[in-house]
Design brief:
Layout lengths: L9 H7 L3 H21 L5 H27 L14 H29 L5 H20 L4 H18 L8 H11 L1 H8 L13 H20 L9 H20 L14
Helix pairs in contact: 2-6, 3-4, 3-5, 3-6, 5-6, 6-8, 9-10
């Protein structure tokens, strides 16, 4: 067992972002969207970049608390759990659980102290609390409601790192695009799981291509109504290109990687 897992990102990367492809996917799917909205403000400076990094680390530390609990305890109640650690590692994780959690609580506490004088700090703190609550429900349920907890968790993954630094943006556009780019797509995909039964998507790769094509067209149409969506369209095109590449790889493999859900989804 590697004690480096006490540090932020290490556990998540060891269990969910192992290969180079998944690391690239992590940067595209997890980091890029929230950082992109900060770039759109056109007021990027060292202080804002440092603040974003701290907010990102605190968000992911809270995410890892959910990961750790899920891997140690939630999987024991599942019929076909995804085992991300060996039996030996699981034994250590159970023994080290308190310190693994506490190390991340320390990181989150530091971020709270760092941001305490920021505007909208209380709102940001409530978002952290909401993420924690959503993860509790997510780890204890495997039903239709799981699709909604997944939507909440993924949405907050992008909102929490960027929320304090996008005051220049129109809030309806910020929230609209931050929810549309990934969270809603994940909601549909997760809602297609047998125990959710909300949707019936069979090929996630094809769905993603169609989804981002439609989102691009809708964003262009909104320009006709003087809704300033232009700054956000490049982000959608990046995801369209990225999902297109994955789809091509999936097709060339003859569908062999289809069930592996190529690309980090977090």
């Amino acid at each position: 067992m590697n004690w480096l897992q006490l540090l932020p990102f290490v556990y998540g990367f060891r269990t969910r972002v192992r290969t180079l492809a998944y690391k690239i996917s992590f940067l595209v799917v997890t980091v890029l969207p929230s950082f992109y909205f900060i770039l759109v403000t056109r007021q990027v400076n060292t202080e804002k970049l440092l603040g974003y990094l701290i907010a990102l680390i605190s968000m992911y530390s809270l995410y890892e608390i959910g990961y750790i609990y899920n891997d140690i305890y939630t999987t024991s109640f599942e019929k076909k759990p995804t085992m991300r650690s060996s039996i030996e590692e699981m034994t250590f994780l159970k023994r080290a659980y308190p310190i693994l959690i506490m190390s991340r609580v320390v990181v989150i506490t530091f971020s709270v102290i760092y941001f305490k004088n920021y505007d909208r700090f209380i709102s940001w703190l409530l978002l952290l609390l909401l993420l924690y609550i959503a993860y509790i429900f997510h780890n204890f349920t495997r039903s239709t409601i799981t699709a909604f907890t997944m939507f909440t968790i993924v949405a907050l993954k992008y909102i929490i790192p960027s929320f304090l630094f996008v005051e220049e943006l129109e809030w309806y556009l910020y929230l609209g695009f931050i929810l549309a780019v990934v969270p809603f797509a994940r909601f549909v995909e997760y809602g297609s799981k047998p125990y959710c039964g909300l949707f019936n998507v069979k090929n996630f790769h094809k769905f993603r291509i169609i989804y981002y094509l439609v989102l691009t067209i809708l964003s262009l149409l909104l320009l006709l109504f003087d809704i300033p969506t232009l700054p956000y369209i490049p982000l959608i095109l990046i995801f369209l290109f990225y999902r297109g590449v994955i789809y091509i790889v999936e097709k060339k493999s003859g569908g062999a990687i289809h069930k592996k859900e190529v690309g980090y989804n977090g």
